[in-house]
Every structure is written in structure tokens, then in C-alpha cells.
Amino acid sequence: MIPSFSPDRPDSAGPAGDLLDAQDVRLLVETGFMALMHGFVASAGEIFDGVVAARPAQEAGHLGRAMACLHGGDADGAVRILRRLPPSDAARLFLGLALHRQGEAGEARAILSEVAASAAGTPHARSADAILAGLDAEPTRGPGPRRD
């Protein structure tokens, strides 16, 4: 029998949830992000897929999966994942980054500015400020060279 779960409850477990306790899930999330930092994008994606299966209502697995998409060059996939999440500071921060990578600088700037203002003094706000500073430092991209 598959255990019941509710995606509306943040503490609810998915079908694999009874196999993993909160500490197990936390370790998997940490392992997934370490894998990303070391370039093991496909493995990280699989780890985060497991986290999503175990805890579908928690954002950590979804955020990790979105970051795996970004590291793998799939900004569109990351944006799709992040747009489906409730608008937490972390989800909006990563959405701003993904939109920037997708080439949507205006929307990215608006979202990152909102995070910087609404989450002032937090790591999310500091990260948003840093990304915004990087956007400001980038040269303006024109239409590119003519190809007649």
C-alpha cells in the first residue's frame, strides 16, 4: 500500500516518504548540492528527483532540481520548475537567476529587486543584491554584429 500524502502540507511525505526521515532528506539535499558543486549534474538531478519523490510538498528537492537544470544548461527547465513553487524568498531568488540565464533580464531584475527589499538582512537578500550587482556590471548587449 502506498502511504497517503498531501501536497498542501509541507511536512507530508510522498510514496517514498516512510523510508526516509527528515535527517535522511536533509543529507540527500546536501549531497545533491555537493554533487552540483563538483560538476556531477546528472547525479545531482537524480538525487533531487529522489528528494521530490520522498517530500513532494517541500521546496528543497524542487529547488535542487532547478539548480541541476541550470548547471546543465537548461534555464527553461529551471524556470518551469521554479514558477510552479510557492513564492518563497529562495524560490524567487533562484527564479531571478534562472530568468537571467534565460535572457529575461528585465523580469529577473524585478524579481531580484523584490527579494532584496522584502528579505532585507537575510542571506537571500544578500544573494539577490550580489546577482543584481553582477547584472549591473555586465555590458549592455546590443543587437550584435550585422550579418549582411
UniProtKB/TrEMBL annotation:
Q: Which GO terms describe its molecular function?
A: identical protein binding
Question: What is the name of this protein?
Answer: Tetratricopeptide repeat protein
Do you know which InterPro entries this protein is assigned to?
TPR-4, TPR-like_helical_dom_sf
- Report the domain of life of the source organism: Bacteria
